Amino acid sequence: MNLVETLNQQYMKPELPAMNVGDTVRVTVRVKEGNRERTQAFEGTIIAKKHGGINETITVRRISYNVGCEKVFPVHSPSIVSVETVRRGKVRRAKLYYLRDRVGKNAKVKERI
Asked: Which of 1, 48, 72, 79 is deepest in the core (most CB within 10 A)?
């Protein structure tokens, strides 16, 4: 291994759950406001996974107050406290960008049993 790969392995989180596109996850993030620090949860459906290794990111989408909200989380970031899989989704695509156009029950993903 070269030096870059060694450093990447050192900073990667080993305790991440198995998460795929279509799963509903709860991402807990450490938020700093002034001199205080707190944790905040963001729960939604993973619509995309990009890159790999230390650069891996997930795009999580949720609807709050009838407005769609998407956030991109770097999975191995030190500001992410935990990622929990709430439910598994049954999908046949790698990217679920079509959910952006859906409203209500059409925007749901079936659960994998």
From this structure: 48
